[in-house]
Amino acid sequence: MARIVMKFGGTSVADLNRIHNVARHVKREVDAGHEVAVVVSAMSGKTNELVGWVENMPKVAGSNAPFYDAREYDAVVASGEQVTSGLLAIALQSMGINARSWQGWQLPIKTDNAHGAARILDIDGADIIRRMGEGQVAVVAGFQGLGPDNRLATLGRGGSDTSAVAIAAAVRADRCDIYTDVDGVYTTDPRIEPKARRLKKIAFEEMLEMASLGAKVLQVRSVELAMVHKVRTFVRSSFEDPDAPGMGDLMNPPGTLICDEDEIVEQEVVTGIAYAKDEAQISLRRLADRPGVSAAIFGPLAEAHINVDMIVQNISEDGSKTDMTFTVPSGDVDKALKVLGENKETIGYDVIQSESGLVKVSVIGIGMRSHAGVAASAFRALADKGINIKAITTSEIKISILIDGPYAELAVRTLHSVYGLDKS
Ligand code: ASP
Ligand code: MG
Questions:
Q1: How many CA atoms lie within 13 A of 397 on its CB side?
Q2: In testing the pocket of ligand 1, which one of 143, 161, 181 has its CB within 8 Å of the most ligand atoms?
Q3: What's the CA gap between 80 and 144, in Å, rounded?
Q4: Does the CB atom of residue 157 touch ligand 1 within 6 A?
Q5: pLDDT of 80-108, one tens digit each?
Q6: Do 284 and 318 fall within a single domain?
Q7: Which of 21, 316, 401, 420 has the CB geometry, 3.0–4.6 Å to 322, for a possible disulfide?
């Protein structure tokens, strides 16, 4: 017998038939004698609709304030998950399963006060464990919790993954199964490279990089949490027949296991290629090369909540002037240019240049720690295809390369094949 948390994303609960199908997946695990808790997202598209309602409330004539109260945003937006948790409990009950829905505030899942982007602080797992012991399946509304102000708080878009992993950690589950519309994590996006392969296993750290660098399978925060609490997390599809052979396999269900690197016996040097579109590059030319220049640039950008990613500073020849280049999301360029313009005097640059429509392609793998030449092969392969590199950053387990947007697909396919990811 095992203890399993099963999470179902928006497309898996998109309509009543799919909710019925999800109930069959749950029933399979319950019938096998496992202790089960379930976490659900809102029906697909629902959260967008709810956010739209909040944002498009007509304003009083003469007012152009885009303001709305984040606590009321949460009250509206959290309702999508309330609906699916109730519907799934009904579907389960109709199959003879003892199921009960739970809203975030009822458990409670305690969060901080950052309405709209709250973090989970505490979940008392004992109560869920006790109910599991009594044979009850808790169907928990994901994406929501209870803030210190005693009000509903939502966890940020995609947050029901984080709800699931947090609950799995709180009840010390053997497994957290994230059911979605893809059947696992791939070496790269199969829409770009049809030869992409599903990974059997991927280490927490690699998944964290994949998720941060553009692979949209899981919310980044959920991977962080899984890594900290060592929650063995499976990404698998809810669209397969719930009773197909192997679906209930305890150790090796179909899908990708995200786990500790120690569990991965045959570690490849490179595990996957991720990409992030809509990057922009900003360059400040002829800056004074003295202490405090970086702080003068990136301080005001941080205050404006602009997320700076790659940073490249040139070393000046005579020690007097330098150039600084960095990337921001394309959507933030205008805001960044405005902030930098306002701070021109204190920063002290000569000209400012910007370019949008760039793409960051990243090579990821913990095997890089112990293998030399991984970056060199990437550069060679891109050069052979005539792809110009605009900026590079590296960490122990990844190399990120900034290139022109139109080359994105070619670069992804080139890197995917250079590391042999298309051959199993
Ligand atoms: N329904 C929420 C969203 O769309 C949470 C989730 O699906 O994870 O962001
Ligand atoms: Mg989701």
A1: 20
A2: 143
A3: 10
A4: yes
A5: 999 999 999 999 999 999 999 999 999 99
A6: yes
A7: 316
pLDDT of residue 64: 66
Burial of 116 (0-12, 13-18, 19+ CB in 10 A): middle
Q: Phi and psi at residue 137, in whole multiples of 5°?
A: -100, 120
Position 423 scores a pLDDT of 83
Q: Find the 236 Cα to ligand 2 centroid distance in Å.
A: 13
Which residue numbers in the chain have pLDDT < 50? none
Residue type, 300: P
Confidence (pLDDT) at 320: 84
Residue pair 271/199 in contact (Cβ under 8 Å)? The answer is yes
Q: What is the CATH number of the domain that holds 283?
A: 3.30.2130.10
Q: Whole domain around residue 219: which residue ranges?
A: 3-262
Whether residues 293 and 257 fall in one domain = no
Is the shortest distance between the CB of 104 and ligand 1 below 6 Å? no
pLDDT score recorded for residue 61: 78
| Ligand 1 lined by 80 (C-beta under 6 Å) | yes
Tokens linked to 153: 């708080």
What is the position in ligand 1's atom list of the atom closest to the CA of 9?
Answer: 7
Q: What is the DSSP letter of 406?
A: G
Dist. CA 118–CA 157, nearest whole Å? 11
42 CA closest ligand 1 atom index: 1
Both 256 and 116 in a single domain?
yes
Please check whether residues 152 and 283 belong to one and the same domain. Answer: no
Q: Report CA(401)–ligand 1 centroid distance (Å).
A: 30
**How many structural domains are present in the chain?**
2
**Residues with a beta carbon under 5 angstroms from ion ligand 2:** 9, 41, 158
Distance CA 219, CA 363 (A): 20
Please check whether residues 289 and 237 belong to one and the same domain: no
